[in-house]
């Protein structure tokens, strides 16, 4: 087990909002026996318990190997954690790959990557190219190709996988010509980029970024990321990380739609539907999985736990319907909400269980799949 190997220079100061710089080789012995820091994110310990400190200096990877010395090159499993593009860490206890590696005779690689505004702000310029989380991940895949043989892995047998938003980003690498040749297989677990809810246009990203910039004093009615891109980005680079976190949450809430991957951009030149129809994607072996009731996740994040009761006896049918419509407003884009409402209205209005089930089914189909 090798923990906390740096794969890029810390993306701080002038490197904030820029593509990652590969870590230069070093001499001597590096201590890869303990976790380093995870990437900056709003703290949600009940849902995303992060066992290490948070910092922008967070681009580190971990390698798990079976305890064997037979010299055979083993398949490599590269893992992308999920967390609605804003939270999560490779250091979370549930992502410890000791057992996965040992029982399946695999080399497992996990890592942290930039999230939220740091990983997805896209200004459509070279100064703020966007999809930086994907660029971070690409750098790890390149690191794997160059170095994994030293750890007993086969660089020609790499499987890229993730869960939830991690799965969506794995799908993004299938769609991107910039990731071609870096992996042989993909395993998507509960997440693709086939819906509008899980990605943005560059324009949407600029609007979000300008709103955050106004909150932290880097933009105003006379200059924003559209009119003075470089000046506003330079100002945002001077702000403390906590200011950008507070500004991002303030802009996004009550919706849970933060900064996301952007299409028609350098890393993702085509919409998923267009790329799929035209064959403009990496031809890799793919396994795509979903699970029953995976659309229940919005109910976990809301605070009225009566809605989680098995029989929902303590709320009225009207309350249940309104609560479900509020979840639609929180978790989907405005243009999708009417579709969700129509979907829910297919359920008998007095049947609270049916209304909840229809809501969960819609989220599973619209957000996850």
UniProtKB/TrEMBL annotation:
One of its GO terms (biological process) is acetylcholine catabolic process. Keywords: Glycoprotein, Hydrolase, Serine esterase. It is an enzyme of class 3 (hydrolase). GO terms for cellular component: extracellular space; plasma membrane. GO terms for molecular function: acetylcholinesterase activity. Residues 2-359 form the Carboxylesterase type B domain. InterPro entries: AB_hydrolase_fold, AChE-related_enzymes, CarbesteraseB, Carboxylesterase_B_AS, Carboxylesterase_B_CS. Its EC number is 3.1.1.-. PANTHER family: ACETYLCHOLINESTERASE, CARBOXYLIC ESTER HYDROLASE. Belongs to the type-B carboxylesterase/lipase family. This is Carboxylic ester hydrolase. The lineage of its organism: Eukaryota, Metazoa, Ecdysozoa, Arthropoda, Chelicerata.
């Amino acid at each position: 087990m090798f923990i906390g190997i740096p794969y890029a220079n810390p993306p701080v100061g002038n490197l904030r909002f820029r593509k990652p710089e590969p870590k230069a080789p070093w001499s001597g012995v590096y201590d890869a026996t303990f976790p380093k820091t995870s990437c900056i994110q709003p703290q949600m310990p009940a849902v995303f318990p992060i066992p290490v400190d948070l910092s922008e200096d967070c681009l580190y990877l971990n390698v798990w190997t079976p305890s064997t010395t037979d010299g055979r090159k083993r398949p490599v499993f590269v893992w992308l954690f999920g967390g609605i593009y804003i939270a999560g860490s490779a250091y979370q206890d549930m992502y410890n790959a000791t057992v996965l590696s040992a029982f399946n005779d695999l080399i497992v690689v996990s890592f942290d990557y930039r999230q939220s505004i740091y990983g997805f702000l896209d200004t459509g310029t070279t100064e703020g190219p966007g999809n930086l989380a994907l660029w971070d991940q690409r750098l790890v895949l390149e690191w794997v190709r160059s170095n994994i043989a030293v750890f007993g892995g086969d660089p020609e047998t790499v499987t890229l996988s993730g869960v939830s938003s991690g799965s969506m980003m794995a799908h993004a690498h299938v769609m991107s010509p910039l990731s071609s040749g870096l992996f042989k297989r993909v395993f998507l677990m509960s997440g693709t980029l086939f819906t509008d809810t899980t990605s943005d246009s560059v324009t949407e990203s600029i609007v979000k970024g300008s709103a955050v910039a106004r909150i932290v004093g880097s933009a105003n009615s006379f200059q924003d990321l559209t009119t003075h891109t470089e000046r506003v980005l330079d100002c945002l680079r001077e702000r403390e990380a906590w200011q950008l976190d507070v500004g991002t949450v303030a802009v996004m809430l009550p919706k849970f739609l933060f900064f996301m991957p952007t299409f028609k951009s350098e890393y993702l030149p085509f919409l998923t539907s267009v790329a799929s129809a035209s064959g403009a994607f990496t031809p890799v072996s793919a396994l795509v999985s979903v699970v029953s009731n995976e659309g229940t996740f919005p109910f976990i994040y809301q605070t009225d736990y009566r809605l989680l009761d098995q029989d929902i006896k303590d709320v009225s049918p009207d309350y249940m319907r309104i609560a479900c419509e509020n979840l639609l407003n929180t978790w989907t884009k405005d243009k999708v909400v009417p579709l969700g409402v129509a979907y829910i209205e297919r359920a008998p209005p007095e049947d609270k269980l049916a209304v909840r089930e229809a809501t969960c089914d819609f989220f599973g189909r619209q957000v996850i799949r």
